[in-house]
Amino acid sequence: KGITGLQFEVNKFSTFSILYLPEKEEEVKEPITEGVTHLPYIQGYQDDTFRPNAPVTRAQMASMFARHITNNDIPEASATFTDTVKHDAKDAIEFVTETGLFKGITATSFQPNGSITRAQMATVAARWIEQQCVERPDTDFCPPTSQSP
């Protein structure tokens, strides 16, 4: 690394302190694996970009929830919506509608390429939390259950 040195000129009387702070060794962090209960469920685009500021479509959000819930093992399904028959996310869309997390815009339309609105996302999140609290009531975000003495 070389020799550490310091040189300066003083024209006025003053007190100076010279400190030497050795460089810290950079800590290498291992990936967290303890307590991991699922595989990654958020994926980037096919061109290897992530686009965090891009709007999220209903199909993308349905895919994220389906991958999370099924641990990336989404079952094949027949399309019930006319606009998802040939969509890449058809199976994910069918899965999340069957579980009750998502609903179509109409009985025959899901609008998979439409942006998910804040209201729709809040509704899906509330449904997911409700389902989680039924399955695991001791989860931190579930309201406490009343117990009889």
Short description:
With 149 residues, this protein is mainly α. The chain has helices at 58-70, 90-98, 118-135. It has a domain at 58-135.
Write structural notes for this entry.
It is built from 3 helices and no strands. The N and C termini lie far apart (69 Å). The protein has 149 residues and is mainly α. It has a domain at 58-135. It is elongated and about 85 Å long. It has helices spanning 58-70, 90-98, 118-135.
Layout of helices and strands:
Blueprint (H helix, E strand, L loop, with lengths): L57 H13 L19 H9 L19 H18 L14
Helix pairs in contact: 1-2
> What structural class results from the helix and strand content?
mainly alpha
Number of strands: 0
- From the N-terminal CA to the C-terminal CA, the straight-line distance is 69 Å
Overall pLDDT confidence: 84
The amount of beta strand, in percent, is under 5%
What does the overall shape look like? elongated
Low-confidence parts: none
Computed CA radius of gyration, to the nearest angstrom: 26 Å
Helix-strand pattern, N to C?
A: HHH
| Helical residues, percent | 25-40%
Number of helices: 3
Biggest sheet, open or closed, and with what strands and sense? none
Descriptive labels:
149 residues, mainly alpha
